Task: inverse folding
């Protein structure tokens, strides 16, 4: 009996000590950040911008109409580090900032070019920040980027940020890069990191592509230079390529599709190729990879010779008058055009990453690492530097199908 | 000793409580830190050595049915050897308990209870272990039989949730940080199999002592398999340099798990399971410490000492300024201490005792009291 009383006493004491009343953190005392923006500071090391959800605006109906309060609040501070910035913000907003709902971390191009390793370590060390929040490089300032991130077709900001990256599943215009992917690639010895490229579009940007040929226009767009003619809005198109922790270049839509094909991350996308049947004609296709791409790396006198084989199926979506796809010879002709077009696109992409950016974002190094016995030997081989000497041989094998509806247009 | 004894399944899960908690408590990370990309090779290597030792120990123990290593040391060297060996061995569950309480409490504090005093979190585990030990051995091993399978399934779920992210090239270069770090100095990683200690004390708690060998081999196979799976999953998903900076490497994997858009942030569920697992493991360790203490000092009832040991573990766990000190002690001293005592000293004593017994049988001498002829 005495033992039972003692046990009950201990449990009672525990109950009081573990309920956490004195240090409880509830939704009323926290302010949930949805996005973090990091810019170069003017008066201090950096400018930290945090976008919060305004809890009072979410689903509050007053007499049948939705509350008109702003859905988000954006606050910026100049600070020496991320943590000190959040601390400063904590001191002037009435709630404690919580980063557990943060969906994207935006770095401005300017700060990314100077190196972001310091922030990466801070972000990955922060237990509140989820490893699956997206890493975005903004062509404009991160503050401007967040201020223009107005959800048009989504009511929830968090879902909006999810959807802009998830769109790559059917557009292939960018990749879903999470903090853990980025950090792992940064720490890897056979791969370089890359991030989502995003920017703010304005109606006057399409003019930059007026001299390009029709078929290359659509694949040449990057984040802040697409042809959407709406008001100013945020857009994520392309990939920001890093070498170690520094931004070294950007990939447009076509190059991003090539990257996704080679890294086996493409779900499906649309491409436009020159028509073999008329000089100025084009053919639209939906392409889907049929199997994983094959990549082989051979070191010839320590120079990497890289062969890639890509397998895809294509469906012709649009055509022009006078083309008869009921004849196999015409389909074969389109197939050979698609193969040649994609081989050229992928080769250009590969040489761009190798010669211009000197950054192995595909991770071809993983095909060579097995040639070395120890990590020391591998690191001494300096693959990431040697990648710039690479030569590529790309083969594309496509299987083109045509929709029954428009197989023959007289 | 309680009337209730363990069957094969209970005994296997009792031994597996060690490896399961070592996996949760970041031992895979320690192995990856030491051997780099060849950590998987190191695990296979140490597991083979442990397997050979397990078979030898099981064969030697079969000659001493129903007796533990302290009884056997008493047979070999009298009270002196028994007390000396007991004193050496009691350090192992005690240090492991201290390390467990401090380490896991710190991890919980970091993840969920940032502002709570550490002592409250630690107390939570210590009180659970005290209550379990007061309830008796039956309660402990039956709890192991319930909790451990769930925790082990959860580990498999974690590993297979990342199947699509596996990159086989991350296991290369094959010798990682070097041949020495994989096979020679890497041998010190054998301490991860410190559950082997339990095999030396298991015999008196078995319903059927003839199943001892079977228990030893099943426990070894499952321990090795789990350790290999956990190391492989870390290496296949993350760069080895990424793994080494995390306080709980398994938590690193769990945080990135998402099952579609409906089941996100499942880490809370896994943490709950790990809390239960840690409580069970602490109860097992405290039981082992109390059992050895009782054997050394011939105390009548070890249950009354449970609170004292609990408070001792709590107090000692709070002494180090931070977990880095505990990790340093573990890496520089206890790793080798475990290696020498569990894998060298105990098998030698067992071997010498079996030789002594064989000689006595050959010379037709009366067998020393308490050791039956089998």
Result:
């Amino acid at each position: 009996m005495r033992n039972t009383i003692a046990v009950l006493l201990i449990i009672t004491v525990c109950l009081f000590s573990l309920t956490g009343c004195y240090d409880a953190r509830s939704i009323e005392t926290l302010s949930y950040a949805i996005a973090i923006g990091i810019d170069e500071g003017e008066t201090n090391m950096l400018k930290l911008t945090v976008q919060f959800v305004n809890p009072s605006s979410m689903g509050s109906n007053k007499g049948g109409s939705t509350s008109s309060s702003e859905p988000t609040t954006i606050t910026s501070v100049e600070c020496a580090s991320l943590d000190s910035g959040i601390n400063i913000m904590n001191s002037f907003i009435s709630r404690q900032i919580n980063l557990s709902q943060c969906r994207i971390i935006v770095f401005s191009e300017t700060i990314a070019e100077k190196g972001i390793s310091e922030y990466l370590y801070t972000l990955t060390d922060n237990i509140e920040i989820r490893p699956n929040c997206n890493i975005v490089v903004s062509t404009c300032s991160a503050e401007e980027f967040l201020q223009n991130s107005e959800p048009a077709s989504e009511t929830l900001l968090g879902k909006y940020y999810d959807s802009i990256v998830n769109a790559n599943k059917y557009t292939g215009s960018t990749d879903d890069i999470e903090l853990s992917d980025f950090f792992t690639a940064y720490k890897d010895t056979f791969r370089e990191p890359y991030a989502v490229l995003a920017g703010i579009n304005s109606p006057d940007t399409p003019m930059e592509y007026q001299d390009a040929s029709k078929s290359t226009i659509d694949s040449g767009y990057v984040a802040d230079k697409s042809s959407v003619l709406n008001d100013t809005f945020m857009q994520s198109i392309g990939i920001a390529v890093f070498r170690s922790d520094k931004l070294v270049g950007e990939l447009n839509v076509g190059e991003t599709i090539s990257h996704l094909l080679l890294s086996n991350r493409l779900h499906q996308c649309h491409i436009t190729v020159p028509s073999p049947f008329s000089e100025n004609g084009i053919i639209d296709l939906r392409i889907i990879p049929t199997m994983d791409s094959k990549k082989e790396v051979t070191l010839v006198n320590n120079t990497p010779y890289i062969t890639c084989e890509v397998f895809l199926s294509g469906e012709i979506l649009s055509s022009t008058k006078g083309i008869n796809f009921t004849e196999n010879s015409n389909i074969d002709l389109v197939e050979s055009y698609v193969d040649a077009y994609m081989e050229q696109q992928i080769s250009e992409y590969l040489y761009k990453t190798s010669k211009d950016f000197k950054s192995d974002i595909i991770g071809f190094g993983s095909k060579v690492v097995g040639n070395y016995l120890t990590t020391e030997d591998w690191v001494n081989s300096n693959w990431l530097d040697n990648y710039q000497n690479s030569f590529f041989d790309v083969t594309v094998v496509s299987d083109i199908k045509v929709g029954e509806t428009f197989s023959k247009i007289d | 000793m309680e009337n209730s004894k363990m069957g094969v399944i209970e005994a296997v899960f009792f031994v597996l409580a060690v490896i399961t908690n070592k996996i949760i408590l970041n031992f895979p990370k320690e192995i990856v830190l030491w051997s780099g990309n060849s950590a998987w090779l190191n695990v296979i290597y140490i597991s083979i050595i442990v397997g050979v030792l397990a078979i030898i120990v099981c064969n030697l123990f079969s000659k001493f049915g129903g007796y533990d290593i302290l009884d056997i040391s008493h047979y070999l060297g009298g009270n002196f050897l028994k007390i000396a060996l007991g004193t050496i061995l009691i350090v192992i569950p005690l240090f492991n308990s201290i390390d467990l309480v401090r380490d896991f409490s710190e991890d919980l504090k970091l993840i969920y209870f940032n502002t709570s005093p550490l002592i409250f979190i630690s107390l939570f585990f210590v009180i659970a272990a005290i209550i379990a030990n007061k309830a008796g051995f039956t309660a402990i091993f039956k709890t192991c039989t319930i909790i451990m399978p769930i925790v082990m399934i959860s580990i498999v779920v974690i590993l297979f949730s990342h199947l699509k992210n596996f990159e086989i090239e991350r296991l290369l270069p094959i010798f990682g940080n070097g041949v020495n770090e994989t096979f020679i100095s890497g041998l010190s990683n054998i301490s991860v199999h410190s559950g082997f200690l339990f095999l030396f004390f298991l015999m008196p708690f078995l319903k059927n002592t003839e199943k001892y060998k079977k228990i030893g081999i099943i426990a070894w196979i499952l321990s090795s398999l789990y350790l290999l799976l956990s190391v492989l999953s870390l290496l296949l998903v993350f760069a080895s340099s990424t793994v080494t900076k995390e306080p709980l490497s398994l938590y690193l994997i769990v945080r990135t798990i998402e099952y579609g858009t409906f089941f996100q942030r499942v880490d809370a569920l896994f943490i709950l399971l790990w809390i239960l697992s840690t409580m069970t493991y602490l109860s097992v360790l405290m039981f082992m410490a109390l059992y050895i203490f009782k054997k050394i000092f011939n105390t009548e009832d070890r249950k009354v000492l449970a609170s004292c040991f609990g408070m001792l573990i709590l107090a000692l766990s709070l002494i180090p300024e931070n977990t880095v000190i505990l990790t340093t002690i573990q890496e520089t001293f206890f790793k080798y201490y475990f290696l020498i005592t569990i894998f060298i000293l105990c098998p030698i004593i067992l071997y010498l005792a079996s030789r002594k017994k064989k000689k006595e049988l050959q010379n037709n001498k009366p067998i020393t009291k308490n050791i039956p002829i089998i």
Q: What stands out?
A: Chain B has one domain: 8-362. The mean pLDDT of chain B is 84. Residues 8-362 of chain B form a domain with the Amino acid/polyamine transporter I fold (CATH 1.20.1740.10).
